[in-house]
Design goal:
The structure is a single chain. The chain has one helix and eight strands, in the order E-E-E-E-E-E-E-E-H. The protein is mostly beta strands and 145 residues long.
């Protein structure tokens, strides 16, 4: 479930909480809860899990309920996205259970950004030089900030 009063429309850069809740029907060892976000073409955009974020693996017995809430910042460009949820076992690298398209949400309001991710672009310079001396030279540079 997506938080913020079950909203389904967000703006790029909004924070969202995604909660996964599951009840064990049988015993399971080494469980991690995974969330993945895919775009409208089902292209993987992002995934994380409880284990990668510092939680210990879970051992579940029948009837145990596990609930994990992830907080993410939607640095996504405008579009439709789906949340997949998994109960995953790391030892075998296999899911115990999969819930594809567990939630759908929409991101709007990024007219300056196209693609999947909103990398928070800003224009540092935009200059024009004229003159015959510069006509034959074309340069581009990428620098780390």
């Amino acid at each position: 479930a997506l938080d913020r009063a079950t909203a389904v429309a967000f703006q790029s850069d909004d924070f969202v909480e995604i909660t996964v809740r599951a009840t064990a029907l049988t015993a399971h060892e080494d469980v991690s809860i995974v969330i993945a976000i895919v775009d409208a073409s089902q292209y993987p955009v992002f995934d994380t899990c409880t284990r990668r974020l510092g939680a210990q693996p879970l051992s579940l017995t029948p009837g145990d309920i596990v609930r994990s809430t992830f907080r993410i910042q939607l640095r996504l460009a405008q579009g439709t996205y789906y949340v997949h949820a998994y109960l995953h076992r790391y030892v075998t690298d296999r899911p115990y259970d999969v819930w594809l398209s567990a939630a759908t949400f929409f991101v709007g309001g990024t007219p300056a950004v196209r693609g999947i991710a909103n990398l928070i672009p800003s224009l540092v310079t935009c200059e024009k030089e004229t003159g015959a001396a510069h006509a034959a030279v074309a340069q581009s540079a990428i620098s780390a900030v």
